[in-house]
């Protein structure tokens, strides 16, 4: 595995030019496309669904697509994202009636599966499903919107999650999402994250490559 993955969240991209924006951010050095799915039910916002994921694949995007489901119910939409070409599919355990079943659905299609933890959601949801997990995603803001500030308590939670992953002995990514910027990514990496979602910090900048290069330099520092 690559040591560190940068996953720009297209939530902050220009949706009227989405294909070009994704090309541009990948050319600027991004590793993964983070794809935020919001349903105006589990979270108070409405974004994009499987049709848009499929459209990006048809447009020619071959990079991994990291589908972050902020929807309830979960299972109904998983199959659509598998067909639409998702690489990773992650969901919030509180939003699934049957967490193990949702994970199995994702894994049975050969996609990578993960659980997402809101700032106040305990990590114990991992306890009996670690064998089906490829990525643990910690939210460092409350889900629903881009452009919020990083919640500092997430650093301790990252360390806790990192210890759980190490104890499992499995090759599991530790992903962080919300308020990640070039000026805090260093301490976030030091706390154990190895996959970094950043929306506004990248797409609101005039030059994507400058920000991504700066982020990588801070991670390596
Ligand atoms: C929030 C989304 C994030 C969001 C991050 O619910 O899950 O992926 O796009 O945006 P920034 O990086 O601006 O906090
Ligand atoms: Zn997200």
From TrEMBL:
Name of one Pfam family that matches: Ribul_P_3_epim
Classification via InterPro entries: Aldolase_TIM, Ribul_P_3_epim, Ribul_P_3_epim-like, RibuloseP-bd_barrel
PROSITE patterns recorded? RIBUL_P_3_EPIMER_1 (PS01085), RIBUL_P_3_EPIMER_2 (PS01086)
* Listed Gene3D superfamilies: Aldolase class I (3.20.20.70)
Q: PANTHER family recorded for this chain?
A: RIBULOSE-5-PHOSPHATE-3-EPIMERASE
Name the chain's protein: Ribulose-phosphate 3-epimerase
Q: Which cofactor does it need?
A: Fe(2+); Mn(2+); a divalent metal cation; Co(2+)
Q: Which residues bind substrate?
A: 9, 68, 144-147, 177-179, 199-200
Q: Where does a divalent metal cation bind?
A: 34, 36, 68, 177
UniProt organism field:
Venatoribacter cucullus
Instruction: List the catalytic residues.
Output: 36, 177
The UniProt similarity line reads:
Belongs to the ribulose-phosphate 3-epimerase family.
- Which GO biological process entries does UniProt record here? pentose catabolic process; pentose-phosphate shunt
Name of the coding gene: rpe
């Amino acid at each position: 595995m690559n040591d560190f993955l940068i996953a720009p969240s297209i939530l902050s991209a220009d949706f009227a030019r989405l294909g070009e924006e994704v090309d541009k951010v990948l050319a600027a050095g991004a590793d993964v496309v983070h794809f935020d799915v919001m349903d105006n039910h589990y979270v108070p916002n409405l974004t994009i669904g499987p049709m848009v994921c499929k459209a990006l694949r048809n447009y020619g995007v071959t990079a991994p697509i990291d589908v972050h489901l902020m929807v309830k119910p979960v299972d109904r939409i998983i199959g659509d994202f598998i067909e639409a070409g998702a690489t990773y599919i992650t969901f919030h355990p509180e939003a699934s009636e049957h967490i193990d079943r949702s994970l199995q659905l994702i894994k049975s299609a050969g996609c990578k599966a993960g659980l997402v933890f809101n700032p106040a959601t305990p990590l114990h949801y991992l306890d009996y499903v670690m064998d089906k997990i490829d990525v643990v995603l910690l939210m460092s803001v409350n889900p629903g919107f881009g452009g919020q500030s990083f919640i500092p308590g997430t650093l301790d939670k990252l360390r806790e999650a990192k210890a759980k992953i190490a104890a499992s002995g499995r090759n599991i990514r530790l992903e962080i999402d919300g308020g990640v910027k070039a000026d805090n990514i260093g301490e976030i990496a030091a706390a154990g994250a190895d996959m970094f979602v950043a929306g506004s910090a990248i797409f609101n900048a005039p030059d994507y490559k400058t920000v991504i290069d700066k982020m990588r330099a801070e991670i390596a520092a």
